[in-house]
Amino acid sequence: MADIPFDIIGFDLDGTLIDTSGDLAAAVNHAITAIGRPAYPADAIRPFVGKGARIMLERALAASGDCTAELVEDRLPVLLDYYQQNLAIHSLPYPGCVAALDALAARGLRLAICTNKAERFAVPLMQQLGLADRFASIIGGDTVGSAKPDPAPIRAMIARAGGANMKNPRCLFVGDTINDIAGARNAGIASIAVSFGFLEGAVDSLGADAVIDHFDDLLPTLERWPS
Ligand SMILES: O=C(O)COP(=O)(O)O
Ligand SMILES: [Mg+2]
């Protein structure tokens, strides 16, 4: 069995581990159809995701009319309340995700999450999907006071996943947008971009160290990683 030269593998959540676009779209639509805006299909929400719920709402409002600060302040609590109650109605892990997590854990790797989603959504979402216990740490966009691409949340993810007690923890981050790949680079760690997430445009342009098109490719890609 080929050696994997990492101790901790970190993952982005939305668009990487889990396709959350159906529940995010439902929450946005709940907030904006009440003021006469049209509903978005899940596919149309994907490019709005990546920098937290406020920016997702701003992008959705701006794409269908005006987007004033008052409108955002008025609609954001409605969106967040709805999402908190409906985290995992449509959301599912991407194909092969759970098997890949099992395979990595069986190889002794620690798994962790760093998402720009607020922690109060990220943790119960993973619990409701029955996956939270697989992760040694789950850091949200509001856990440490800054979000990716700032390196601080990725560093906190590593430290809380046991890296704080390791001499030189070897870490890699897997994500779907520039926030993830730039965040990994800013934290000084390697990265893999997934091509099946919420990114619009060419995944190669993210500058990740490798790209995977399916979770089945994750373990072989790590096994081939130069040590
Ligand atoms: O909720 C968001 O905007 C982004 O979440 P992610 O960092 O897990 O992709
Ligand atoms: Mg993402």
UniProtKB/TrEMBL annotation:
Keyword Hydrolase listed: yes
A molecular-function term among this protein's GO annotations: phosphoglycolate phosphatase activity
Pfam (any one): HAD_2
GO biological process: carbohydrate metabolic process; DNA repair; glycolate biosynthetic process
Cellular component terms (Gene Ontology): cytosol
Known catalytic reactions: 2-phosphoglycolate + H2O = glycolate + phosphate
Pathway noted in the entry: Organic acid metabolism; glycolate biosynthesis; glycolate from 2-phosphoglycolate: step 1/1
E.C. number(s) listed in UniProt: 3.1.3.18
Swiss-Prot/TrEMBL cofactor(s): Mg(2+)
Keyword annotations from UniProtKB, A to Z: Carbohydrate metabolism, Hydrolase, Magnesium, Metal-binding
Catalytic residues in the record: 12 (nucleophile)
Residues binding Mg(2+), per UniProt: 12, 14, 176
PANTHER family the record matches: PHOSPHOGLYCOLATE PHOSPHATASE
Alphabetical list of HAMAP family matching this protein: GPH_hydrolase_bact
Family indicated by similarity: Belongs to the HAD-like hydrolase superfamily. CbbY/CbbZ/Gph/YieH family.
Function: Specifically catalyzes the dephosphorylation of 2-phosphoglycolate. Is involved in the dissimilation of the intracellular 2-phosphoglycolate formed during the DNA repair of 3'-phosphoglycolate ends, a major class of DNA lesions induced by oxidative stress.
Name this protein carries in UniProt: Phosphoglycolate phosphatase
Gene source species: Sphingobium algorifonticola
